[in-house]
Amino acid sequence: MFLRIVADSFGRRPRHKLLTGAALALGMGVVTAALSVSLDVGDRLAKEFRSLGANLVVTPQADSLPLEIGGVDYRPVNAGAYLPEADLPKLKTIFWHNNVIAFAPVLEVRAQALPFAREGGPLGNWIEGATVVGTWPDRAVPLPDRREFQTGIAKTNPWWQIDGRWFSDGAMECVVGVAFAQKNHIKIGDLISLATGYVTKIPAPLEVMGILNSGGPEDESIIVPLSRAQSLAGQPGQYRKLYVSALTKPEDDFARRDPKTMKPDEFERWSCSPYVSSIAYSIKQILPGADVRVIRRVAEGEGAILTRVRMLLWLVTAAALLAAALAVGASAAASVIERRTEIGLMKALGAGSGTVGFLLAAEQLLLAFVGGGIGYALGIILARLVGEKIFGAAPEPSLIVFLVIIALATGVTILGSALPLRRASQYEPAPILRGE
Amino acid sequence: MADRRATNRAMFWRIIRRLFGANPGRLFVMLLALGAGAAVTAALLNLQVDAKRRLTTEFRAFGANVIVLTKHASLSGSETLPESTIRSVPRNLGNARVTMTASLYVIATVLSPQSGKSLSAVVAGKNPRLIGWVAPANASSLAPVGSPAIPAGPICMVGGRIGKQLHVEQGSAIILSNGDQKETCVAAGLGESGGPEDDQIVTDVRAAQRLASLLGRISAIELTVPGTPREIGSYIVSLQHLLPDVDVRPIRQFTEGEAKIYNRISGLLTATVAIVLLLTGLCVMAAMTNVAMERKMDVGLMKAIGGSMRRVLRLFLAEAALLGLVGGIIGAAAGIFLSIGLGKAVFGVAARPRLIVYPVAVALTVIVAILSAFPLRRLASIRPASVFRGEA
Lengths: 436, 392
Description:
The complex is a heterodimer. Chain A has helices at about 1-10, 15-50, 155, 180-185, 225-235, 265-270, 275-285, 295-335, 340-350, 355-390, 400-425, 430-435, and strands at about 55-60, 70, 70-75, 85, 100-115, 125-135, 140, 150, 160-165, 175, 190-195, 205-215, 220-225, 240, 240-245, 290-295. Chain A is α+β, with helices and mostly antiparallel strands. A six-stranded mixed beta barrel of chain A has the order 5-6-13-10-12-11. A two-stranded antiparallel ribbon of chain A has the order 2-3. In chain A, strand 7 (about 140) and strand 8 (about 150) form a beta hairpin. The longest helix of chain A is centred in the last third of the chain and has 42 residues, at about 295-335. The model of chain A has no long low-confidence stretch (mean pLDDT about 80). Chain B is of the alpha+beta class. Chain B folds into two domains: about 15-55 and about 260-390, no CATH class; about 65-250, no CATH class. Chain B contains twelve helices and 13 strands. In chain B, a hairpin with a 2-residue loop joins strand 3 (about 90-95) and strand 4. In chain B, helix 1 crosses helix 10 (about 310-345), helix 2 (about 25-60) packs antiparallel against helix 11 and helix 10 packs antiparallel against helix 11. The longest helix of chain B is centred in the last third of the chain and has 41 residues, at about 250-290. Chain B is rod-shaped. The chains are: A alpha+beta, B alpha+beta. Chains A and B meet through helix 2, strand 2, strand 16, helix 8 and helix 10 of A and helix 2, strand 6, helix 4, helix 5 and helix 8 of B.
């Protein structure tokens, strides 16, 4: 009988139920969309922030102090220490290896450069003291577990613009900074010979494959494959600076504490959070003799903005939730208020207040489940659209969101109906049936 | 004639009043739904406008994004600019301020009398007193740690790495020398920033000028220009126009990164707000329609006593519009407080109320209310008799 009454109520007033259900579904759709986007946005934005470049820099511990002004090192060539290139695949074996999204070693050498036109014939004399930067443009690094990791300076410094193309690794090719190219009238396709020390014979030239616009000191330099720079510097298999771009969690007060002063359980919690400092710590563990520093300018700016944006979206979600809850609650309340006659009739036939309340609540709950489910599907579709449009990737539908939505739909409907239901249970059947 | 019209109008309003008074529960429910929608609309619209503006100021955290150098000189150049250049750089960009730092770089010998160590290092003379530090993030990591003893002489900020190599501590004296020139200062800072500052000693620009024997000259001016990517671009163009003798360059790492992130965040915010507003509107509409559909009896009665459908509909639309207006005004007022609260929570500063937002929110609410009363038109086909017999 109970089920029959409920089924009858749905069958008798389909339009009415449809509207209440629609309000519920739309309201829950808002909440689902906002929730899924907010849950997902931290990771997506953290990835976007990598367009600011590396947030960690690795230098040799024993290095002498660089005398760097505007990116040019005024140290003598032989000064300073180096790090072995062979250790680099280890970066992808640290605990946070999935967070390391790119790295690029750099070796700078001061050399003489002799540019040639393509058709032959030098474009000028030897250029003294040209900065030669050796690096990986894009390289598949073999990992210990036989996989490969694609990385290089084009990934760590995505703002670098190349007119032409990058040199291929190991080839006799190079890329020239835009300022250097202008000053020495070098074009794509020209050749450059590089040498250090006293030149007895002009070395085999490198072909210029592209012009680099970095907006930084690299505009004044010649970029060559790392192995070229190593042989120029006489430091085979060595590099001097390593840029690491890692996905991190914004630092809080806990993250800034010195790991040495932490208790064991605190240390575990610290090293199990992808703070930039804990990633730096684990890189330091696997690269002996290296000094890993956080590039504060990038890391802190990123942290500040990420925290803000995340909070902003949470608040938008909360506001949406509030509005949806109120509208749905209002709709639920309205549907109860309008059923005074029905309630009166049921009571006149001998139903107790409890039974009537239970019956109506069951109807509302059924509506909440159906509306909540539809709303969830609707919200997921919308979140997908937003995610794909803005980040090019849709957020994963999450079970937690689904449970939250169903719970919310139930809670809101029950709350919305509770007050009118309570009043309804106090109705005297006679005046209602008389139409008073 | 005029008399009849006046009576008609009086009757119209009387019925409206009655409609409101008849069921306070229903009135409350409708106002709640409309008000909630209006409050969220007003708050989100306000926040959306404000948040984008605030985000650009948040980018200050990344520090300088534009650099002014001598023309044709390389970044490494030993050429310098006259210090007066800084006075011709415009300080204001819209409502925001451009912060700037003049700097002069010189390689000097640094000696720590305490540890007896000495080495060559880059000394950067900056002008903090004139314009403040460029990068607040860096400044905080370089700020003196420990008890702030009153220094006996000028302070110089010592980078973390150079401090380690020199074995200096907070407050110990260091001597900078270049040729015959000598400067003494008290070490402070010693933080690591991961940038070139770690290997530098930052001192007052005057001291650096004396060290380099370049009085009144600077190497570069670093500017932190707030604003959207387009505003920064046009600022660079106008600055270059204003100062044809120097080279104005964006620091592309930050200008491009900021532009990309700004576009993403503002797109995300717009999309989220649009979806929330759209669905909230629909949701309120569904709730309202639900209520409106219950008016079958009223419509039946009015038709039974001779009301034409047009007049009946006009009555209900007027009621809905009035409800929308009242709900919208209440909601917009609540929206002011909501947006102030949201702004405070996110940016620490209350969002400045934009007056245009409130009429828009109220208008939207009225439209939603009227639209949701429109399905009543479908009641035109009902026959009063069947309603009263309880059939339909």
